[in-house]
Design brief:
The protein has helices at about 1-5, 15-40, 55-75, 75-80, 90-105, 130-145, 160-165, 195-210, 225-245, 250-265, 270-275, 280-290, 300-310, 350-360, 370-375, 380-390, 395-415, 425-435; strands at about 10, 45-50, 105-110, 120-125, 150, 170-175, 185-190, 215, 325-330, 330-340, 345. It is an alpha/beta fold. Helix 2 crosses helix 5, helix 9 (about 225-245) packs antiparallel against helix 17 (about 395-415) and helix 10 (about 250-265) crosses helix 17 (about 395-415).
Length: about 450
């Protein structure tokens, strides 16, 4: 069934970071499927990529060509097998050229949503706004075939709400890729009681072909990934607010960011992670979760204030980091924003950051950074030893880390209790594969 549906696909919002990555994954699979089956690629514009202007689409085409070259060069052994009966293609470079040109002939670049009408699988990757999504899905419902299926990359808006607004009950599924889709292996799959069983099977099979680690989630706003991350972020901002009794706000942010990266052995601190996702995006997700989750306030005045002064983080088109809570130089934090002064205090240009380091103290002696531990064959033993020492330490940094780690575990368990995650292992899997944590919040280390 999946092969039939892959004959005509569309990506809406294809020029964005998520859309372009999903388009690349689909193009790779559609081209591979075709050449494996027939030894050649008959293009005919079967992958319809829709975005809003010519410049974006031109950039998308260049991106796909570049990435397909990388993909094909790494797949040359498989390619030789696909082309074994093609006497006209003998050299590697000939096969690579034929495959890339054939793959690119499969795409149609369009600005009008109505051009997606022939698609039977439609991937939506537009702005995280219910009203906009509802309009797009309503249009698609009116132009696509009755057996077309829709996969939304939403990271927070309940699928049932989108389906109801667009009249697509059963034909839409949450298919949340992590950023960037071509690299990140995690895929959250969100279903509702009404989701068509054929769509569930099709989505699962596609995830396998794309070599994704699939984690199911119940249809609760924020799902598992953002369900944990947003609450984790709110707690980090609360910790920083608590430190402001004895520290300036920018110093408090610096300390919590350092604790959540260095002391907790994560790939980046919580404020850097919010910058990476986008301060404005985090605010929008929190607002969405608050709309649909009762008896809980997932909100921070600090994030509102940052948006009000126009400090939003996120990334430039080339993937480099925009300034947010932190200022970045060569991809690394170099300063911390002050709302009062509306400017950055540079970390390496004054004594304030050294004073903060002294207040925190150092991690236990057997501490190793995330990057080193991620490559260590004895990672389990080293994490157990480190966290054992951390929970015996009484420095400010250790105490903050202890509180944060306990809170992370509490959040994870609540996701299971609230029937967001099916089980605690799924929460661990999302944190480890989607956020690259070396350990899940539920573990034997502490």
């Amino acid at each position: 069934m999946l092969n039939d549906y892959l004959e005509r696909c569309a990506v809406i919002g294809a020029g964005g970071k998520m859309g372009s990555g999903i388009a690349l994954l689909l193009l790779q699979e559609m081209a591979r499927m075709e050449v494996e089956r027939t030894g050649r690629i008959a293009g005919n514009g079967r992958l319809i990529l829709v975005d809003m202007n010519d410049e974006i689409l031109t950039g998308l085409q260049a991106y796909l060509r570049k990435q397909m070259l990388r993909y094909t060069e790494k797949s040359i052994v498989a390619l030789r097998g696909y082309y074994k009966d093609r006497d006209d293609l003998l050299e590697n470079r000939e096969m690579i050229s034929d495959f890339i040109n054939g793959a690119l002939s499969m795409i149609r670049l369009e600005k009008d949503l109505k051009e997606a009408a022939p698609a039977r699988l439609v991937f939506e990757t537009i702005v995280e706004d219910l009203e906009v999504k509802a309009r797009v899905f309503s249009t698609l419902k009116g132009i696509c075939a009755d057996d077309a299926y829709f996969l939304t990359n939403t990271s927070s808006i309940p699928i049932s709400v989108q389906a109801e607004r667009a009249g697509l009950a059963g034909r839409i599924i949450g298919y949340h890729f992590y950023n960037p889709p071509a690299v990140q292996r995690l895929l959250e799959v969100i279903t509702t009681p009404q989701t068509d069983k054929n769509l569930q099977e099709l989505a699962t099979e596609l995830g396998k072909r794309l070599k994704k680690i699939q984690v199911p989630s119940h249809d609760v706003a924020g799902f598992i990934g953002n369900g944990h991350f947003m609450r984790d972020a709110v707690f980090g901002m609360e910790l920083a607010a608590g430190l402001e009794k004895d520290a300036a706000p920018h110093e408090a942010i610096y300390m919590v960011n350092k604790v959540s990266e260095e002391f907790m052995v994560r790939p980046m601190g919580i404020f850097q992670l919010m910058d990476y996702v986008g301060v404005d995006v985090c605010r929008m997700i929190m607002k969405t979760m608050n709309t649909y989750i009762e008896d809980e306030d997932i909100h921070s005045e600090l994030i509102d204030q940052m948006n009000e002064v126009g400090v939003k983080g996120g990334q430039f088109p080339d993937g480099s980091q925009k300034d947010g809570f932190l200022k970045y130089e060569k991809g690394r934090p170099a300063g911390v924003f002050s709302l009062k002064e509306k400017d950055y205090h540079m970390i390496d240009q004054s004594g304030w950051s050294r004073t903060c380091d002294d207040k925190l103290g150092k991690p236990p002696a057997d501490h190793a950074g995330w990057k080193a531990l991620s490559k260590d064959k004895n990672i389990d033993d080293k994490l157990k030893s480190y966290f054992g020492a951390l929970f015996k330490a009484d420095t400010l940094g250790a105490k903050l880390a202890q509180r944060y780690l306990r809170k992370s575990r509490q959040i994870a368990r609540k996701l299971v209790d609230d029937q967001v995650a099916y089980n605690i292992d799924d929460v661990n899997k999302v944190l480890r594969n989607g956020f690259y944590h070396l350990y899940g919040p539920e573990n034997d280390y502490f």
